[in-house]
Amino acid sequence: MYTFEKKDKQGVLTIKASKEEWEKAVEEAYQKNKGKFKVQGFRSGKAPRKVIEQNYGDTIFFDDAFDAILNEEYSKFLEENTSIVPASQPRVDMNTFTIENGLEATLKFDLMPEFTLPDLASLTSKKPEISVSKEDVEKELENSKNAHARYVEEDKDAQLGDFATIDFCGYVDGEKFDGGEAQDYRLELGSHTFIEGFEDQIVGMKKGEERDINVTFPQNYHAENLNGKPAVFKVTLKKVEKKVLPEINDKFVADTTEFETLEEYKASIKENLVKMAEERAERDYEVLLLDEIAEKSKIELSPAMIDHEVEHMVHDFEHRLSHQGMTMEAYLEYIGKTLEEFKAERKDDAEKNIKSRLVLQRIISQNKLSVTAKELDSAIADYASKYQMPVEEFKKALSPQDYAFFENNAIMTKVFDLIKGNNR
Fold first, then answer.
1. Is the whole model's pTM more than 0.85, yes or no?
2. CATH code for 262-423?
3. What residues of the chain score a pLDDT lower than 70?
4. Architecture in CATH for domain 2-110
């Protein structure tokens, strides 16, 4: 049996099972799982429950029995109370449990906030204006120049503005430290890439020269063990180079692009910059609209719901860090924050994420938006054409997650088409 109450924007479902109900659940767990256990002297699935419990422990079937009772009562509750909509997976608290009296447990879950969407025609957000200046085009040309730069070795002492290729090894208190060593590192002198004073002391060095460079780590250095400490770097200068930039003219354009003249190239750059600016403005417009809808919907979230979203965000961030070869602990040390400070800084974003999801879900359900198989195929075909791949070949490489991605993109396009159509 169960009892339910609303408390602090949460649902609290208390589930009780009698001694007899508990025993029945344990017996069903045994019958379901007995084939998984190997007991000497018995064929697979034929060992009596007591024998399995003697070999594997008296509580071997308790977890499955516990889950079965909770899942059954939770499902029954949702079927009998269709107006109650959970907004999170239930969190379980074991209240009491004894063989003699059965069990009592509490499931706590966030309730879907009650809110009303505003009239979409009442939205006032406007699409940001875009502009691409002559300076923007020149900046792209400069990037192209740098991408095609040549580095010419020079037989001279290193000077500011030169590119010095060096080997170095750093020591603090006479000991090497992590991250303080590299070979064939190309460093632009005067770029302030390294600790203050490091690059200045390379000035005047000759090719092949070795020198001890003395510096002091800043007090707020990302590695706490090095904060404010003096260090000695043993440096060997291996090469001095000058960066030579090409002249941007018709010949450069013809040699490095599909265009023949500089003016054609500039026009193409501007066209691409305008296209990217339009796409950014469209994304920003969608965010503005979604934020306005969420604000006018006056959605109130429980602290537990926000905390749960923060935990999810932190877990996702930690997962992405692992792919970069970094741990959460190392990252927190690098930025000089505790885990609690890191979580606190994400609460506003977590609240915004939840409200956006709730608004989108409500718009989809109220307007009965869906994606047909034909529409999904069309979206996939468009994507395949960007990679110049046959559609069927492209589809073969797709995973179920990829299909979900395309379906989500298609439904989001419908959502924002609807919102923008009402906002014109």
1. no
2. 1.10.3120.10
3. 424
4. 2-Layer Sandwich (3.30)
